[in-house]
């Protein structure tokens, strides 16, 4: 089989590294809007070859690993794709992508969200182990043919991912709370602290807590802008709920409600039972 | 020298382990309000012996490693402490402790804040390497005699800590922003997500981001309640500033100000230059 990975950053590059090791795949092609990234991907041996976009219909597997907005643009421009080609997108939101897929591609189009990432980006951030033991959510899988479904599941589980199923609406709702909101928070915390504090204080007082809480604020602005925009309503709802929680804490502290405050802190500790 | 560690949790227990290895210290005593913790500390060999509170004036070094409120209570009850005994407190806020120190103890009383910790607590959470390469902030060190200052600096730098100096007011202000605020956020995020989501969704969608952002929500409620209460005004100010930052993000997203949103995300990335 021949595969093409469109978008050679952290996610696409790491995927390409895994495809290069897959014995069922003879050639891994790469495409990136950034010519520098294409050059790096070749140098780092993430892919065998860089091709032009109009050559992708020669591939059995097409992976879309660009920000959500980019996936939507590409989906609308897919032409003459053979019915036996599996198209797999790795975006972080699903409903707007699902709605953009033309009817004639629905059977062969897989919406997958690998719950994996780091704060680094670009081809140099790629590493083969990124997906090892990560959950991969497949959305509205029942829309696709058994052939494309099975091929995808074999391929992704072979990379080491744990497959789970969800519909796109639920995916976007829950991702907003569990994944996108923490990113909003981390970007906001980083910006707030950078406004208030100088380098010396940050270095002296950060400890492990601030470092952990601000790590994902180093993530790709292009990728996260696209996620926030495509999942706007869910993100705003989650953010409003979170601001209410902060106001709740504020009220307890302001009004010296120590018993409630203690119960609230203990309730947060319940997370130990899950993670 | 003989040392006593009051409070045998993560911080006190880890300190005691280091004191046990110090060739200048012959005996390490321990005290904890929780009798179970005293028993555990002995079993884990964190200390040589458990003593009663009224025996602490036989020690050359007294370490206070209980929550801030507890430190303030103890400080007010210190009686007949020899002038050659160094008293070192390891609280996370400073001004309320500084204000509680009786005049007769000021020369021998050290306010130290080791910027080290994990989300675990109790004697079993203790480990000797906790302080290795951590910053230790000494507050208002100029109030203490050279003898007690030098003894403290030798001891703490010997454990592997990087010493830095700050006054208590600045410490509490900057700690509220860089350390206490991230804890408020993490406790709030954990509570909000636990209210909205079930175990399955959390496990499937968490990835590394939510895990990192919620890690410190597993920290000791007693310790953090005390910090929030003792540093109330600074914490509330920092929280209000952070809520403004969240509202700023919300407005940009709501009003489709993509250019501003992108600049704001890029600005957060500036943190890469510091941490």
Shape of chain A: globular
In the CATH hierarchy, what is the class of the largest domain in chain A? Alpha Beta
Q: Report the portion of residues of chain A in β strands.
A: 5-15%
Biggest pleated sheet of chain A: 8 strands, mixed
According to CATH, what is the topology of the largest domain in chain A?
Answer: Rossmann fold
What is the CATH homologous superfamily assignment of the largest domain in chain A?
Answer: NAD(P)-binding Rossmann-like Domain
Q: Name the pair of protein chains with the most residues at their interface, and give those residue counts.
A: A-B, 88 and 89 residues
Determine Rg of chain A (CA atoms, Å). Answer: 21 Å
Oligomer: homodimer
Proper CATH architecture of the largest domain in chain A: 3-Layer(aba) Sandwich
How much helix is in the residues of chain A?
Answer: 40-55%
Order of helices and strands of chain A: EHEHEEHEHEEHEHHHHHH
Can you offer a commentary on this structure?
The structure is a homodimer of 275-residue chains. The first copy, chain A, has eleven helices and eight strands. Chain A has 275 residues and is α/β, with parallel strands linked by helices. Chain A folds into two domains: 2-166, Rossmann fold, CATH 3.40.50.720; 171-273, 6-phosphogluconate dehydrogenase C-terminal fold, CATH 1.10.3660.10. In chain A, helix 6 packs across helix 10. Chain A is globular. At the A-B interface, helix 6, helix 7, helix 8, helix 9 and helix 10 of A face helix 6, helix 7, helix 8, helix 9 and helix 10 of B.
């Amino acid at each position: 089989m021949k595969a093409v990975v469109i978008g050679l950053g952290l996610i696409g590059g790491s995927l390409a590294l895994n495809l290069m090791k897959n014995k069922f795949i003879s050639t891994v092609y790469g495409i990136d809007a950034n010519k520098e990234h294409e050059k790096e991907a070749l140098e780092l041996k993430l892919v065998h070859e860089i091709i032009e976009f109009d050559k992708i219909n020669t591939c059995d597997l097409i992976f879309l690993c660009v920000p959500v907005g980019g996936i939507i643009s590409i989906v609308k421009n897919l032409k003459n794709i053979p019915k036996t080609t599996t198209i797999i997108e790795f975006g972080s939101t699903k409903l707007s992508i699902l709605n953009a897929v033309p009817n004639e591609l629905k059977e062969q189009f897989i919406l997958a969200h690998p719950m994996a990432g780091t704060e680094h980006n670009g081809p140099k951030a790629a590493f083969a182990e990124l997906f090892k033991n990560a959950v991969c959510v497949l959305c509205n899988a029942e829309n696709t043919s058994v052939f494309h479904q099975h091929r995808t599941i074999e391929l992704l589980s072979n990379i080491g991912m744990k497959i789970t199923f969800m519909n796109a609406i639920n995916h976007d709702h829950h991702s907003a709370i569990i994944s996108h909101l923490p990113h909003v928070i981390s970007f906001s915390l980083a910006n707030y602290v950078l406004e208030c504090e100088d380098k010396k204080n940050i270095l002296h007082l950060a400890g492990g807590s601030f470092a952990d809480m601000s790590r994902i604020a180093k993530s790709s602005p292009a990728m996260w802008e696209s996620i926030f925009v495509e999942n706007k309503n869910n993100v705003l709802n989650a953010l409003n709920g979170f601001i209410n929680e902060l106001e709740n804490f504020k009220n307890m502290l302001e009004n010296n409600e120590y018993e409630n405050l203690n119960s609230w802190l203990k309730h947060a500790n319940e997370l130990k039972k899950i993670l």
